Amino acid sequence: MSSILVVGSLAYDDVRTPVASRDGVLGGAASYFSMAASLYAPVRLVGVVGDDFKDGDIARLRDRGVDLGGLERRQGTSFRWKGTYDFALDTAETINTDLGVFGDWRPKIPSAFVDSEFVFLANIDPVIQLATLEQMRRPKVVALDTMNYWIDHSRDALLEVMAKVDVVSINEGEARQLCNTFKLAHAAREILALGPRVLVVKRGENGATLFTKEGAFWAPAYPLDETVDPTGAGDTFAGGFVGYIAECGGFEDPVSLRRAVLHGTVCASFAVERFSVDGIGAADRAAVDARYKALHDLIRV
Amino acid sequence: MSSILVVGSLAYDDVRTPVASRDGVLGGAASYFSMAASLYAPVRLVGVVGDDFKDGDIARLRDRGVDLGGLERRQGTSFRWKGTYDFALDTAETINTDLGVFGDWRPKIPSAFVDSEFVFLANIDPVIQLATLEQMRRPKVVALDTMNYWIDHSRDALLEVMAKVDVVSINEGEARQLCNTFKLAHAAREILALGPRVLVVKRGENGATLFTKEGAFWAPAYPLDETVDPTGAGDTFAGGFVGYIAECGGFEDPVSLRRAVLHGTVCASFAVERFSVDGIGAADRAAVDARYKALHDLIRV
Asked: Using CA atoms, how far apart are residues A80 and A216, in angstroms rounded to an integer?
């Protein structure tokens, strides 16, 4: 079966919400992505952790079948992020970021991984995303995520790497920021004109919108009675999205892209129901498929 | 063809938005509703205006084929509402309300209208909604809209009239307020338990959700590059929704309810593109059907 390579952060998060908090819980884009994508296809992880990283957290990924042959362990502390959410639960306010061993890390793709057909370049300096992509042999589908910081500070490199990937995954606010417009449809056209075949705009509790040159697909979020912790929702979405595409062997059939958005949506819904990767980690494929069916019922005419 | 009766306000609105303003423009729930519903079926209007009401505004409704046999003209001023929106454009802040002749008006359904099969009771004191409904012979589908004021001040009457209608149309915040919960699904179950077969929860630029005992349907708003004036979006939505149901002769087929939500969504999209009823007034059925198709393409999997 097609393998998925993820390159990105593993972290310890300190998360504050108005009703509860957690300290030192497993986080990072690659963790969330892997826990979701591994429900669909074998996942290979390239990342770095410090000597404080707990064996139990390694075990959580390994138990999900994630191939950790690309996980470096270095002297120093793991990436640590501290953030807080207000009642709107829409955007995290970062209280502190300590990059630790992630700070000067340059991903090295193990030779056993360079043939991976599906690649997710999680949020990191786009210069590093480019250097990572160049190590791959001939991936079938490459997706990338980014954040507002790189739009501000590394715009040229970001545009360069966007031109080389198939799927760009980005928040609504970031899409607007990147294109300097409030008009999302304009921003989508501009981003697609850069080169990617697919743009996924994440809209938090308002769902996600898929843009291709052929048209758009608008999906709501999976309705939950309660969101506990939005951390990792976007990366978990990416895990379900790329995972489903890998399971399909690609997205030549346009319907598979729309279904992939729904799978991403469903995976994200599990993620935000609990702190850390506990929600998506507790979900199995049957649970995902049941929510997929419920979500599909909710939107079909 | 089945006739639609609307009972509600005609008003002059003074509207402020961050980028433009209009004074003394045609507004009121019955105006917005009629301009939309008349695209689907003959509309009969029951309302009241003052002697300041302009012939040109009467003509706009008549030109749309609206039967004004139930429009009273009284000495005094027409209902006047002044409201302002901030950049979020989500909720109007009312600056001033002058009920004028609408204040002590009690709708009297003309005998020629009492056989109307489809009825929309626009937002007004629920005691009056009840008294109006009792004048109808045997309507096939009755829908009602309400607002937060009546939830606070006339709750018992509101619950009583809700039990007697088929469709309740309400804002998301009002649904939560009515049921004293943040959990929309819980609120929906409670409202449906009161008696109506259908609940439509309007969610502004996030779309609308349909609830029935059989399940839910989640529709996004029609994506617009720019919203000019959200006034009347809910009533225009109701016009498209009830209009389509009247055109279908009812909603025995559950698919017709979902399609009705999309028609309501499309009509609302025209309404908010311009001030007053100018947007929905400029739309014809072909324009509505074209947007319906585009919206359907946007959500089908």
From this structure: 37
Q: What is the pLDDT of residues B158-206, one digit of tens each?
A: 999 999 999 999 999 999 999 998 888 899 999 999 999 999 999 988 8
CB-CB contact of B47 with B67 (8 Å): no
- With cut-offs at 50, 70 and 90, classify the pLDDT of residue A183: confident
Question: With an 8 Å Cβ cutoff, are B301 and A300 in contact?
Answer: yes
CA distance B217 to chain A (A): 5
Chain B positions touching A297 (Cβ under 8 A) are 215
Report CB contact under 8 Å: B299, A296.
no
Of A220, A223, A226, the CB nearest to B220: A220
Inter-CA distances, A6 with A107, A190, A205, A230, B18, Å: 11, 26, 25, 21, 45
Confirm if A14 and A98 have CB atoms less than 8 A apart: no
Give the separation between CA A233 and CA A220, rounded to whole angstroms.
Answer: 14
Taking CB atoms and an 8 Å limit, are B225 and A185 in contact across chains? Answer: yes
Residue of A nearest to B259 (CA): A301
CA distance B230 to chain A (A): 17
ipTM: 0.83
pLDDT for residue A280 = 98
Per DSSP, the three-state class of A94 is: strand
Out of A183, A298, A301, closest to residue B225 by CB:
A183
Give the Cα separation of B179 and B156 in Å (integer): 13
Tell me the shortest Cα–Cα distance from B199 to chain A, in angstroms.
Answer: 14
From A301's Cα to the closest Cα of chain B, the distance in A is 6
Structure tokens at A223: 């309705």
Residue A1 has pLDDT above 70, yes or no: no
What tens digit of pLDDT does each residue of B139-159 get? 999 999 999 999 999 999 999
| Nearest CB neighbour to B297, from listed A183, A206, A215 | A215
Cβ distance of B299 and A255 shorter than 8 Å: no
Contact A223 B183 (CB under 8 A): no
Task: Name B203's Cβ contacts closer than 8 Å, sequence gap at least 6.
Answer: B171, B172, B209, B221
For B8-67, what is each residue's pLDDT tens digit? 999 999 999 988 999 999 999 999 999 999 999 999 999 999 999 999 999 999 999 999
**Cβ contacts (< 8 Å) between B300 and chain A: which residues?**
258, 300-301
The mean pLDDT value for A166-181 works out to 93
Residue B19 CB neighbours (<10 A): 10
CA distances from B111 to B34, B49, B114, B115, B299 (A): 20, 20, 5, 8, 43
- Report whether B106 contacts B129 (CB < 8 A): no
| Closest approach of B55 to chain A, Cα-based (Å) | 39
Answer yes or no: are the C-beta atoms of A266 and A222 closer than 8 Å: yes
Residue A284's alpha-carbon distances to A36, A59, A248, B249, in angstroms, are: 9, 17, 18, 45
